Amino acid sequence: MSSATSTALFACSRCFSRHPFEELSPGEQLCKECRGSFPVVKCTYCRSEFQQTSKSNTSSICKKCEANVKAYGKPTACEYCNIIAAFIGNKCQRCANSERKYGSAVTCEQCKQRCAFDRHDDSKKVDGKLLCWLCTQSLKRALARTKQHLSSVDKHKHRSHKSKNSHKEKRKSDSMKGNGNDISMGDVPLEKKSKLNPLQGLFSDPNSSDHVVAMTQLKETIASLQKKVQQKEMELLSKDKLITELKAQHHNDTTDLRIEMKNKERLNETKFSLMNSKIQNLLKEVATLSKSAKRNNKNVKSLTNDNSGSGTDSPSTN
After folding, report:
1. How many CB atoms lie within 10 A of CB 62?
2. Which of 48, 98, 115, 124 could bridge 132 with an S-S bond, Cβ 3.0-4.6 Å?
3. pLDDT digit string (tens) for 117-146?
4. CA distance linking residue 150 with residue 136, whole number of Å
């Protein structure tokens, strides 16, 4: 039984063509052709990458976040990672699950925010660093880009080595042909020999001026490209530093705003309680005053009645 028939094949979720499991994309299980026709997009809310499944629907929100938006409305910023993906409470689903599994959050060694979770497993760390989810994803993408760049450089070197070997073989065959022509054309004069084979001197001499010029040009281009790569790397490092500083500043600003809001709420509560106590005291005073006024009115009425009664009952004198 052959190895091709023994290996299990899996169907693409889009075109239903069968491929090995390694060739299908994780999550959506798409083949290379479907992956090429539909791009990979980052979700607006949870910042995870997903494959678009239709050209008509070009939204940048994954299926999970769409369902959560329909169920709970638009999310708020997570108190740990500051990603706008907290649909329930103040934490996103990723940070809530990580806190439930691995305990409270610790500071990330890259972005210096309190959004990483220690799994107590060195194999889960990236380059021996304890990073948060966003930093691990960005570092993995950078490592993948460097590996791809190195593989392309190795392929280019292998091709150049092959071309050099083929060029040497061609020179050898041309030199052998030139020697045969020299033997067959023994009676031909030297001027006719040079006219018949004018390129023989170029192929026979590997240290000619044309080769030297080409080598120097290639060396100069390689040096300029290396300088450009170094400049781009420095720019990327400076941008990463700026991003981390902005994230830290944003985190500090949000914490300061939360503290100010809490202080204002406390002040408003104290003022509200004071006003309520004053209103209650004033109501009590009004009630006591109204009672005293009623008593005074009753006393005045009784006095007037007494005076009128005494005036009518007095006897008449003859």
Report:
1. 21
2. 115
3. 888 877 777 777 888 888 888 887 777 778
4. 21
Question: Cα–Cα distance between 99 and 79 in angstroms, integer?
Answer: 12
With a cut of 70, say whether residue 234 has pLDDT above it. yes
What average pLDDT does the segment 185-202 reach?
43
Q: 147 by DSSP, 3-state: which?
A: helix
Per the listing, tokens 């740990």 go with 80
d(CA 23, CA 38): 16
- Condensed to tens digits (0 to 9), the pLDDT of residues 47-60 reads 887 777 666 666 78
Q: What is the pTM of this model?
A: 0.39
Task: Report how far residue 199's alpha carbon sits from residue 120's, in angstroms, rounded to the nearest whole number.
Answer: 69
Cross-strand pairs, 106: 116
DSSP-assigned letters across all residues of 209-237 = HHHHHHHHHHHHHHHHHHHHHHHHHHHHH
Total residues belonging to the chain: 318
**Helix, strand, or coil here: 252?**
helix
